[in-house]
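Lab notes, practical 5.
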Amino acid sequence: MRQRQPTATARKAPKRPAKANDLASLTEEAYRRLEEMIATLELAPGALISEAELCTRLEIGRTPVREAMQRLAREQLLQILPRRGCIVSACRLEDELNVIEVRRPLELLVARAAAQRANPEERKEFENMAKAMADALAADDFDAFARLDAEFNQLCLVACRNTTAASMMRLISTLNRRFWFTRHGRTLPREGVESHVAIARAIAKGDADGAAAAAERLLRYVESLAGRPRAFEGPIRATRS
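Output from the prediction step:
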């Protein structure tokens, strides 16, 4: 007896591919969470981790995790090993000094511009953030400050209304945070946290000079952690071969 073929409605529907916007959202989530893990040393420098392990820990599929890994590799935070996974990049003093050298003019520009250009809602958010960071310091709440630090950095980049400066700062923001946590571990140094609070309060008040002064205070503190600031030796001259 001839078997009946399943009807169109009875056949199993093919799996629909993920929509582009869903994939982009998952990639951004994977990037954000991996960036946080690297910056706060949950993934320590030199750690070897497989793509499959990252997918399990993040509970996100391979494609968005792979794209997040590639983005972090372009930012020099991961070294991808074909068919093996990736290694978290080393945290070297020379790299830290290079980042500080680039960071100073950008951070001062962002602090001033944010104080001048933040809208009323953003100023209120900066005010609330300053209070929350001060509360985290008083309670010695490392996790709260780590979260606030990331949110504060992002809000500064939005409020400065300078997409070029924001793009350049994003390239080094994770390195900045990783150097910070490398030096301090899961402790909250009063000088560093109070500098963040001062920047946030100055921006909330629209005080550009105050924001820049507080940012300079923070930068000098960061430099003190790395040892003597690098001397500026003037323009680099081409050498003849």
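Observations recorded by the TA: Strands lie at 48-49, 78-81, 85-88. The chain is about 65% helix and 5% strand.
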